[in-house]
Design goal:
This protein is an alpha+beta fold. The chain has eight helices and nine strands. The strands form three sheets. Strands 6, 7, 8 and 9 form a four-stranded antiparallel beta sheet that branches. Strands 3-2-5 form a three-stranded antiparallel beta sheet, with no helix packed on it.
């Protein structure tokens, strides 16, 4: 090694000073380039087709921006928050698929789906709420954690409605009514809270008794079904017998009315005929008597099996009777 060519410390320091002086001239250029790149990155922003952008300047709301590319003041002066105003959001209750971040403040282990009905029965109620953002300004600046508010309000409304109906109504005929009332009341409360949310639908997915009481509940249902079956069978027998009896009674009544009418008409006819005969009798008693006599004979004689004509000059009827003889007198 040539020790004569090794630089001394002063020479090394001088070389370093020269290189640093050369680099220090480039530092402002590098800083300016970084600032320009940072400014360009914060200057242009994009809003999706189903979104609106909420612009804040130093934290204060300034304006809304429509979908597309836009410019804003960079370096943190203006901030853009995109809000999806066309997307349908969904919250599920009691399905086991809830987001852990949406748990209510009452405790993570609380079973949301267990509810008490109006007749003091317990049901496992599972439902969904679908909603969209109708006012992004209220959503961002009026309420804090709107998702939890939606879940709290929906649960309170659903529990109150289920408590207004019996277990059979919730399970069968009142489900659509509960859906409608839950949607209306949830929307009213959210509007009062100025959440900026529009409820699209509230729908009961599944309503069942809890697993622990299902066997007893099924036995009760079977007993009710058997009761309904017996009632229906009784009504079927009633509908067969009662109309038939009513028909028979109606027929008997009509026959009696016909018989009564016939007798009354006959009696009226006989009375009128008697009065007419009496009138003729008063005019000519002998002729009327003879006519009545002949009419009576004309009516009676055809009904007589054996006829005997007696001579009024005979003192006895024996000579004229053919008693026990087949062929004349002996």
């Amino acid at each position: 090694m040539d020790w004569q060519n090794v630089p001394n410390p002063d020479e090394i320091i001088d070389v370093g000073k020269k290189k640093f002086a050369s680099f220090s001239k480039k530092i402002p250029i590098v800083i300016a380039a970084l600032l320009i790149l940072s400014g360009l990155k914060g200057l242009i922003y994009s809003i999706g087709p189903d979104e609106v952008g909420v612009i804040q300047r130093f934290g204060k709301y300034i304006r809304l921006s429509s979908p597309g590319l836009h410019a804003k003041i960079p370096f943190g002066v203006e901030k853009v928050t995109p809000i999806k105003v066309e997307k349908i959001f969904k919250e599920e209750f009691g399905t086991g698929r809830e987001d852990p971040s949406s748990r209510l403040t009452f405790g993570e282990n609380r079973d949301v789906s267990l509810m008490l009905t109006g007749d003091l029965n317990i049901l496992d109620v599972r439902w969904i709420v679908q909603y969209k953002i109708k006012d992004p300004i209220k959503l961002l600046f009026v309420v804090r954690n709107p998702r939890n508010i939606i879940r709290d309000v929906s649960e309170v409304v659903m529990r109150r409605l289920v408590g207004d109906y019996s277990v059979d109504e919730v399970l069968t005929i009142k489900r659509e009514e509960i859906d409608h009332l839950a949607q209306v009341e949830t929307q009213k409360i959210l509007d009062d809270y100025q959440t900026g949310v529009q409820v699209i639908t509230v729908k009961l997915l599944d309503v069942n008794p809890p697993d622990k009481v299902k066997p007893a509940f099924n036995e009760v249902n079977e007993a009710k079904q058997e009761k309904e079956k017996m009632i229906n069978q009784a009504w079927e027998a009633y509908n067969k017998v009662i109309p038939k009896a009513k028909g028979e009674a109606e027929r008997t009544i009509r026959e009696a009315e016909g018989y009564s009418l016939d007798k009354i008409n006959r009696a009226k006819g006989e009375a009128e005929r008697f009065l007419a005969t009496l009138s003729e009798y008063k005019k000519a008693p002998e002729i009327t008597q003879k006519r009545l006599y002949l009419e009576t004979l004309n009516e009676v004689l055809p009904k007589v099996k054996d006829k005997y004509i007696i001579d009024p000059r005979q003192s006895s009827i024996l000579p004229l009777l053919d008693i026990g003889r087949k062929g004349g007198r002996e």
